[in-house]
Amino acid sequence: MPGENLTRDEARERAELLSVDGYEVVLDLGAAVAPPPAEGPRTFRSTTTIRFRSALPGASSFVDLVAPHVHSATLNGKSLNVDRDFDGTRLRLHDLAAVNELTVDARCAYSRTGEGLHHFVDPEDGETYLYTQYEPADARRVFASFEQPDLKAPFDFTVIAPRHWTVLSNSERVGEPEPLDGGDNGDIARWTFGTTQPISTYITAVVAGPYHRVTDSYKRSLPDGSTLEIPLGALCRKGLAKHFDHEEIFEVTKQGLDFFHDHFDYPYPFGKYDQAFVPEYNIGAMENPGCVTFREEFVFRGKVTQASYESRANVILHEMAHMWFGDLVTMAWWDDLWLKESFADFMGAFALVGATRFNNGWVTFANNRKAWAYRADQLPSTHPITADITDLEAAKLNFDGITYAKGASVLKQLVAYVGEEAFLEGARRYFKRHAWGNTRLTDLLSALTETSGRDLEEWSRAWLQTAGVNTLTPEVSCDSEGRITELAVLQAPAEGEAMDPVLRPHRVQVGLYRTEDGALVRYARAGVDVVGARTAVAELVGAERPELVLVNDEDLTYAKTRLDEVSLATLVDRLGSVSDPLARALCWSALWNLTRDGLMPAREFLGFVLRFGGRESDIGVLQMLHAWARTALGHYTAQEHRGTAERQLSEGALRLLREADPGSGHQLAWARFFASVASGPEELRLLRGLLDGREKVAGLKVDQELRWAFLSPLVAEGAAGEAEIAAELARDDTASGKRHQVRCLAARPSAEVKEQAWSAVVDSDALSNALVGATIAGFDPGGQRELLTPFVPRYFAALEKVWAERSIEIAMAVVRGMFPMAQGDEATLAATDAWLRETEGSAAPALRRLVWESRDDLARALRARRCDAAAG
């Protein structure tokens, strides 16, 4: 894998030796629009001057740089021998002075994998768009740096680029762009940006290209009588400008800034606030201060449900929270990644509910984000929220459901435990005490202990320093008169914790539900601190017998919940009658966990979706149910029952599509779900009719994105082919259309097609990250098991080569995406186990972790299928 791995020990040693006073970075991007070279990577010139001090004069260290070539390097006025001291990833520095100045003039490579400085040419108009993405350690692909979060410094960026471009960085531009003699590069100019505050390398940013940009401003009166004014910008590609709803983006941005100013008592510290929606982005967004980047799929090309708008608003607020948690105050090393990601995830939902129109944000959090956390916490790679991150490869893999969603869930419980005001006051003290610095776990706990008056060491050990998810189950006894005589909450340890199990303290609300006017409503509730294996809930003794018991009502704690027999029987007939959306989401989550754990047949869960999905009012919950249903059908249903289950699900989805309110988001969600499960001749004929206009569903507008959704199953089932795909691309000859086209081409049911797709992503590095992802998505569209069987041994044979030769983003995508889940048999499980045995001690730990995780998904699927088969 290009780029040498940096270890925690190396970073700690370097931080003890060096302190950085500032960077001056000049990037010459003037040739970005020129044709690519005949051979080798497309490159740009990067000149960096670093001023730094050494605690030990005469010592040696190194600066990070991943580059094809270094023209020259000068340390304290003396030229360095780059042929000797530069190995492609590090430049060794010898005989350091107390005060040093290093200048490195290099030729760096543009990226097509979304790491470093990404280069994208829009197929629609031929325009070039650039942006940077560095987390955790890809700034070294763009400029020489000490690439670790605790060596913060001010940055001065200068960018040379075509004059008609928009060019942005973390700070505001200084003056107007300065015209330069373009020479062979055409009409170019120099942009100079103001000095940043001390920030980490991984959150510096440059965005450059002919972006469509709109502006606004945010104003707020401060307690000292002054006015804070923040210039706002929003950007997207020119081809997306007609779809760009910047008004709503600015509205959420202003609401978020108001919310965080109200609660944090620390003014936004980074001057301007640009938000750029960029192409071929690997992640959801990145919190670069003053220049946040987002995946451009958040610019909606067609009709989407309110859940999509809610999700975008949540991400906007998540990244904004990072301006304080992560950018102003930064973790010292990736062990404490949770100090920024867990807080941003929690604060995103907290602000979503508190500041925007999306007041059901905690419902989505309970049903969606926590499902991600529960899955991650049951994998063999599970880890404490404060993880043991020994190197950068391990750091990359820990941007996961534990660090984000479990951490956020634990913080939600902490707020319930210490009180909202004590929690927020602790955050305020933390910001003021550590502004522009780096912190560890103890720094935050110290502030929270002060404001809450509680000793949080035990809480930290239980929740932050141990792994696994507990299970809470109600135990209810009633007398002959229908009154509760005993109610308790039973706590079980996480799976696989037979030895030394961890039973955590939980603050929960236990809710009792009964039928009133045809609805299941809560009639009694009690708060209780669950401690140990069994906790009595004395306050509810004597209450009327419940039809449904929720042991984590209001979703205060992080735990899987089970249902007692009476509650489960109630939901079989009455799930759709649960009146409270959050309570209903928790019921769905409990049913899904039973299915994932092989305790409920997959077909029974699908039955719940078909009986009650049409009554689900929360669109985000509904779309999560659709995702779960696809997994239940494709992976958890016994092979001998899958055909029948598929037919029933397809027919039921079509019925619910026709029953949905015309033009509603629910109708759109059912249309997409129907397309994703359609396989029978009648369903496929309907999809073709909807595409060519012969068929109609009242109120359903078949826009371009929905057209691709309808074409995909036709292609995968062999009912449409290359000609139809080409015709659709002609209608949508855009970057988005190209991705859809590539996915559909790879989905065709042909051995030759699968061979071509395999070669494109495994044997070649010619595709960009977005097209790699599209090809992987099409390679296994479901229902093509026999076609994919020959690739099982080839997958394991290729793994180490892929990991060694590809960038980490592409390698992760290939290892995860091409794992042979479609086979879903014991032979594939055995092949996985054999590879893990044979590579112990030789394959990279990060690679083995990815395979272990996929192996666990397969083993879980096999357990679930056995459960489904046993149901007859």
Nutshell version of this structure?
By secondary structure, this protein is α+β, with helices and mostly antiparallel strands.
Radius of gyration over all CA atoms, rounded: 28 Å
Tell me the number of strands.
28
**Biggest beta sheet attributes:** 8 strands, mixed
Strand adjacency order, main sheet:
5-4-7-2-1-10-13-12
Termini, distance in Å? Answer: 48 Å
- Low-pLDDT stretches: none
Q: What overall form do the CA principal axes indicate?
A: globular
Mean pLDDT: 95
> Helix fraction?
40-55%
Class by helix and strand content?
alpha+beta
Q: Please tally the helical runs, counting DSSP H or I stretches of 4 or more residues.
A: 28
Q: Which percent band covers the strand fraction?
A: 15-25%
How would you summarize the topology of this molecule?
Elements: H1 8-17, E1 18-28, E2 43-54, E3 61-64, E4 69-75, E5 78-79, H2 82-85, E6 90-93, E7 99-109, E8 116-121, E9 128-133, E10 155-162, E11 166-169, E12 178-180, E13 188-192, E14 206-209, E15 212-221, E16 227-236, H3 246-264, E17 273-278, E18 285-286, E19 291-295, H4 306-322, E20 330-331, H5 338-355, H6 361-377, H7 392-397, H8 402-418, H9 420-434, E21 438-439, H10 441-452, H11 457-463, E22 471-478, E23 484-492, E24 506-516, E25 519-530, E26 534-536, E27 548-553, E28 560-561, H12 565-574, H13 581-596, H14 602-612, H15 619-636, H16 639-659, H17 665-677, H18 681-692, H19 704-716, H20 722-731, H21 735-747, H22 751-763, H23 769-779, H24 785-788, H25 791-805, H26 808-817, H27 826-838, H28 845-870
Parallel strand pairs: 1-10, 16-17, 17-19, 20-21, 22-28
Antiparallel strand pairs: 1-2, 2-7, 3-6, 4-5, 4-7, 8-9, 9-14, 10-13, 11-14, 12-13, 15-16, 18-19, 22-23, 23-26, 24-25, 24-27
